[in-house]
């Protein structure tokens, strides 16, 4: 039984450079169709089930009567080995390398890393290639894949004197999210305390929590939870902190800052609270009493010194109510005035 290995390399012209093929091979002309994201070939005769691999890792099975393998995403920059094999019959293996690489790989961006944080932000970082020219500039691109909440991130370099290869990474947003530890709110009394919290995320819907609690001077203990609340009985005064991760994910957030809750005030504190309440009431009564005194005093002053009524100005008031007539000098004349007869009765 012979093992057939056919290596097919990409070229810049046709995309494929095939070695000499055995005319009796059941599969020929292995090729990549990037636009359709599938690896396809020509069949000669009946063949059993065909398996497709990327870098020796089984990815999927052939579909459409063994005519091609469909991929959700294809690499844009990193060279990978795509191979196919048969499940039955003589050992058979055929492969190609994809995609075509141009330029010096040492000039490409290194250690591309991306993460989602604060629910709404995607941040990516990378390092300059060890062999990159001094004028290299890197540009970040992203495209959404056909699957929901998945992205393909690409960093492409440019230079005036050299061709810079690109680097890419396909990510599922829920896997690269770095969750922030939520804030804890609590309502409590001497009998119980109810703690609640809320995690903000658009890509993870279920979470796991670790809640650490320390009552007074007792040793701290940890509760593993899937709910966003927890109740403790007879809490006293306690400290709590929390960390979170997406369900079925491996990366935990940092511990939240310790939060302290006072649920049992004790006799001294209760007495102090009572005293403060009494002082507040006394202060309120004092303010009301002072207001009453001031209002009464103002009323007495009004009675002792009533306001002076408005005094009438005979001249101004008469002028305001009478009509003024303009005197024309040209019409000035003596007027006859009646004279009453005066009788003199005597002299003194």
UniProtKB/TrEMBL annotation:
<comment type="subunit">
    <text>Interacts with IL3. Heterodimer of an alpha and a beta subunit. The beta subunit is common to the IL3, IL5 and GM-CSF receptors.</text>
</comment>
<dbReference type="InterPro" id="IPR015321">
    <property type="entry name" value="TypeI_recpt_CBD"/>
</dbReference>
<feature type="domain" description="IL-3 receptor alpha chain N-terminal">
    <location>
        <begin position="27"/>
        <end position="99"/>
    </location>
</feature>
<keyword id="KW-1003">Cell membrane</keyword>
<keyword id="KW-0832">Ubl conjugation</keyword>
<feature type="transmembrane region" description="Helical">
    <location>
        <begin position="275"/>
        <end position="295"/>
    </location>
</feature>
<keyword id="KW-0812">Transmembrane</keyword>
<dbReference type="Pfam" id="PF09240">
    <property type="entry name" value="IL6Ra-bind"/>
</dbReference>
<keyword id="KW-0472">Membrane</keyword>
<dbReference type="InterPro" id="IPR040907">
    <property type="entry name" value="IL3Ra_N"/>
</dbReference>
<protein>
    <recommendedName>
        <fullName>Interleukin-3 receptor subunit alpha</fullName>
    </recommendedName>
</protein>
<dbReference type="Pfam" id="PF18611">
    <property type="entry name" value="IL3Ra_N"/>
</dbReference>
<keyword id="KW-0675">Receptor</keyword>
<dbReference type="InterPro" id="IPR036116">
    <property type="entry name" value="FN3_sf"/>
</dbReference>
<keyword id="KW-0732">Signal</keyword>
<keyword id="KW-1015">Disulfide bond</keyword>
<feature type="domain" description="Type I cytokine receptor cytokine-binding">
    <location>
        <begin position="112"/>
        <end position="144"/>
    </location>
</feature>
<keyword id="KW-1133">Transmembrane helix</keyword>
<dbReference type="InterPro" id="IPR013783">
    <property type="entry name" value="Ig-like_fold"/>
</dbReference>
<comment type="similarity">
    <text>Belongs to the type I cytokine receptor family. Type 5 subfamily.</text>
</comment>
<comment type="function">
    <text>Cell surface receptor for IL3 expressed on hematopoietic progenitor cells, monocytes and B-lymphocytes that controls the production and differentiation of hematopoietic progenitor cells into lineage-restricted cells. Ligand stimulation rapidly induces hetrodimerization with IL3RB, phosphorylation and enzyme activity of effector proteins such as JAK2 and PI3K that play a role in signaling cell proliferation and differentiation. Activation of JAK2 leads to STAT5-mediated transcriptional program.</text>
</comment>
<keyword id="KW-0325">Glycoprotein</keyword>
<dbReference type="GO" id="GO:0004912">
    <property type="term" value="F:interleukin-3 receptor activity"/>
</dbReference>
<feature type="signal peptide">
    <location>
        <begin position="1"/>
        <end position="15"/>
    </location>
</feature>
<dbReference type="GO" id="GO:0009897">
    <property type="term" value="C:external side of plasma membrane"/>
</dbReference>
């Amino acid at each position: 039984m012979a093992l057939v290995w056919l290596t097919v390399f990409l070229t810049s012209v046709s995309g494929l450079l095939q070695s000499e093929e055995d005319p009796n091979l059941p599969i020929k002309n292995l090729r990549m169709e990037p636009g359709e994201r599938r690896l396809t070939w020509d069949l000669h005769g009946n063949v059993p089930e065909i398996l497709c691999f990327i870098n020796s890792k089984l990815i999927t099975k052939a579909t459409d009567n063994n005519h091609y393998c469909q991929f959700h995403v294809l690499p844009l920059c990193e060279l990978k080995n795509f191979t196919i094999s048969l499940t039955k019959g003589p050992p058979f293996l055929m492969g190609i390398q994809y995609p075509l690489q141009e330029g010096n790989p040492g000039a490409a961006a290194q250690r591309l890393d991306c993460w989602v944080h604060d629910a709404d932000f995607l941040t990516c970082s990378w390092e300059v290639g060890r062999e990159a020219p001094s004028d290299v500039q890197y540009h970040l691109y992203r495209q959404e894949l056909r699957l929901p909440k998945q992205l393909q991130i690409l960093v492409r370099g440019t230079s005036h004197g050299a061709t810079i290869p690109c680097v890419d990474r396909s990510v599922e947003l829920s896997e690269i999210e770095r969750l922030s530890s939520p804030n804890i709110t609590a309502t409590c009394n001497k009998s119980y305390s109810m703690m609640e919290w809320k995690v903000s995320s658009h890509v993870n819907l279920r979470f796991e929590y670790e809640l650490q609690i320390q009552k007074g001077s007792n040793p701290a203990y940890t509760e593993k939870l899937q709910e966003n609340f927890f109740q403790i009985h007879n809490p006293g005064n306690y400290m709590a902190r929390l960390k979170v991760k997406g369900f079925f994910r491996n990366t935990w957030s940092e511990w939240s800052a310790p939060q302290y809750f006072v649920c049992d005030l004790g006799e001294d504190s209760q007495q102090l609270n009572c005293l403060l309440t009494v002082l507040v009431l006394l202060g309120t009564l004092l303010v009301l009493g002072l207001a009453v005194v001031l209002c009464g005093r103002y009323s007495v002053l009004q009675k002792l010194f009533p306001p002076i009524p408005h005094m009438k100005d005979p001249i101004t008031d008469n002028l305001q109510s009478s009509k003024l007539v303009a005197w024309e000098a040209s019409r000035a004349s003596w007027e006859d005035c009646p004279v009453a007869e005066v009788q003199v009765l005597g002299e003194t």
